[in-house]
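User: Run a structure prediction on this.
Assistant: Running it now.
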Amino acid sequence: MKILFINHSSNFIYGGTKSLVQMLNNLYKEIEYDLVLPKSLKTIDETQNIEDFIKKRPGKLFRCWLPYKKCYLSHKSMSLKGKVATSIQTAMYYLNKTKINKIIKTGSYDIIYINSLIMYPIVDNKNRYFIHIREIFEGDHREYRHILKKLKNAVGVIFIDTGTEKPFIGKLKNYIVLNNPFDMSGVIDIDENLVEDELGIKTKDKIVFSVIGMITEGKGIEFIIKVFMKINNPDLLLLIVGNEKNKYAQNCIKNAKRDKRIKFIGEIKDINKIYKITDCVLRGDEKFGIGRTIYEGLYSGCNVILPGDKNKDTIFDEELFLNRVGFYSPRDEEELFLKINMFAFKVRERSCKSNIDKYLKGWSNYVYSIE
């Protein structure tokens, strides 16, 4: 089988791109693949070297203008600069889409694999498309109908959880809900002392809460900081890990300055180092949406706190993580306050796991089942 994977980002550290990388590194030998990454408006390519992340090299690597449709939850909190850049990026895709169309036409691919909902305009009824939906849809009825038409044109659709599936329940026939791939088995071998020296912090006598990923309003970083600062416990430490260059992040840093328990770490290539020293992973999203960091935390032996309803919202492999998951009502300060206090204890015994084999079996069974 030969697959063309089209990815929306060249940042291999977080989110859907990291999920794709973990899958590519473990693809079955009989699968050949080429990879398309997006061109960017940035004058300096801030992306990492692909060789540092992808071990199973693609046959061909392409750079193309790709669409970036703002059709997901929290897109409204994107900075003005980000909105302009993604709008230009999408316009450039429409002006130059003959290039991606030529790659698809001449590559003799069995599957064209779209790795994010934001690139849905690429899908047509001429080729065999799979689309992997990692975002919670948010948009008007017109865009929803347009997306639904594209999803029906695809031969396969994969949702990462019930939150991403919810807007499309009852509308599609051939789809599955499949958790992301995670391999956190290497966390156990990381030396905590070296991590502390690298980051310039001491964590052994602290209870470490970590927020990992994009520092944006949609992720609720300011909300988490506000609640954390109300907790009068000198043994707590809050690590905020992610790119600090945007205006929102700078405001968060300014607001947190008076609390020495809050540390901004910046962006880290090997995020496993953070999980090694973390006792509990936090998320502050507007709605239930698990995301990679929750499962990475759980598979690394951490506790987790996330917005949602324990009676309605479910997580994969729940039996593996009993008593390690805390839900609170989204953006409810009092509930998050109580949950942080509930999980304010050190993780003494850490078990680090992988679901790669299980993931690949589910993914390949689905892909190969589509005629």
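Confidence is low (pLDDT under 50) at residues 43-47.
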